[in-house]
Design goal:
four-stranded antiparallel beta sheet, alpha+beta, Jelly Rolls, single chain
């Protein structure tokens, strides 16, 4: 994986080189095509994704309505809310650009690493919280406009 693909990776902020290497050692890099679904609304969370290249669309279904929430690109996270809530995905995330590359983390391994490495776990969870706050802020703006 090219270092430039990690330059804008929100998740890595505050981590030193050794911690980044440790984190990457539990990740798998995968490539997706337009139409592939990364997560489905209502399914149990088992993976966290960091988009490296390409674009995904986040949609949620409420009753018979499907709402377009946001499009996410390089450096952004998918599956972070379900990871924090230890639950199910609140939205469906579909790939809208080919190719889309992502780092994929098994949730159990990710959480075990956070617990085993407290400094690293602090930064990872802080970065996830910041990512969620960023998305909430922009969603609030979208609702106002």
């Amino acid at each position: 994986m090219a270092d430039r693909e990690l330059e804008d990776c929100f998740l890595l902020r505050g981590l030193n080189d050794a911690e980044v290497e440790k984190l990457l050692s539990i990740a798998k890099e995968r490539t997706y095509s337009k139409g592939d679904v990364l997560v489905k609304q209502g399914e149990a969370a088992s993976q966290l994704f960091v988009i490296l290249q390409g674009m995904v669309s986040v949609k949620t279904k409420y009753g018979d309505k499907v709402l377009d929430i946001v499009e996410l690109g390089p450096g952004q996270l998918v599956g972070e809310m379900a990871l924090v809530e230890n639950g199910v995905h609140s939205a469906t995330v579909e790939v809208v650009e080919t190719p889309t590359k992502a780092l994929v983390f098994d949730v159990d391994k990710f959480l075990a690493l956070c617990e085993a490495e407290p400094r690293m776990g602090y930064w990872l969870m802080r970065n996830i919280a910041s990512d969620i706050a960023f998305k909430i802020y922009h969603n609030n703006l979208k609702m106002l406009l």
